[in-house]
TrEMBL record:
Keyword Membrane belongs to the record: no
Enzyme Commission identifier(s): 2.5.1.9
Regions that span the bilayer: none
Function: Catalyzes the dismutation of two molecules of 6,7-dimethyl-8-ribityllumazine, resulting in the formation of riboflavin and 5-amino-6-(D-ribitylamino)uracil.
Superkingdom, taxonomy of origin: Bacteria
SUPFAM superfamilies for the chain: Riboflavin synthase domain-like
PROSITE patterns in the record: LUMAZINE_BIND
Protein name in UniProt: Riboflavin synthase
Subunit note: Homotrimer.
Species of provenance: Streptomyces populi
């Protein structure tokens, strides 16, 4: 489990294309401190398992399902990536509950810079739009963000200078893909209401 608070901006140092998977070597001096084989590290919001660790670099295998469902397949040597280690029990939950299980991908539509922040508009797959609400939480490339506006096929987020400086969203341009993970609580609520034969908002509609 992660919090969506990126610890550092890492870099892809090698990519090996396999028959039905890829092997990435990534540099991250912070997240590799004390890293061991089998540990989890979120890379652009995707929970990956450490296969090898040497110095400030680690290697992770990415299967075809993950490559097809996320933007990791577009990574090349030199790509910058958001890195985060799992949350330790007893630590503060600075962002929101993030599983590292990408639900789909979107793309940056436009950026609107302001004096002290920047508004970024991101496309949203139709099957995920029902989970995204104004002022709710969403994970973009592993970053816990608050939704400003939510449309049927897009949403916007407001980024402070720290987020722009320390994450990939400071460098993404219109057309660039991003990984999306919606709030897992919303998915559980939908499933539970469906099992009871109820539709979200049914009680309010009947009042």
């Amino acid at each position: 489990m992660f919090t969506g608070i990126v610890e550092e901006l890492g870099e892809v140092t090698a990519v090996e294309i396999l028959d039905d998977a890829s092997r990435f070597r990534l540099r991250g001096p912070v997240v590799t401190q004390g890293a061991q084989h089998g540990d989890s590290i979120a890379v652009n919001g995707v929970c990956l398992t450490v296969v090898e660790h040497e110095g400030d670099e680690f290697t992770a295998d990415v299967m075809a399902e993950t490559l097809n469902r996320s933007s990791l397949g577009a990574l090349t040597v030199g790509s910058r990536v958001n890195l985060e280690r799992p949350m330790a029990v007893g630590e503060r939950l600075g962002g929101h509950i993030v599983q590292g299980h990408v639900d789909g991908t979107g793309a940056v539509i436009e950026r609107k810079p302001s004096e002290n922040w920047e508004i970024v508009k991101i496309s949203l797959p139709a099957d995920l739009s029902r989970y995204v609400v104004e002022k709710g939480s969403i994970t973009v490339d592993g970053i816990s963000l608050t939704v400003v506006d939510a449309g049927p096929d897009f949403f916007t987020v407001s980024l402070i200078p720290t987020t722009l400086d320390l994450t990939t969203l400071g460098h993404k341009q219109p057309g660039d893909p991003v990984n999306l993970e919606v709030d897992v609580i919303a998915k559980y609520v939908e499933r539970l209401l469906g099992a009871r034969g109820e539709q979200p908002g049914a009680q309010e509609a009947g009042r």
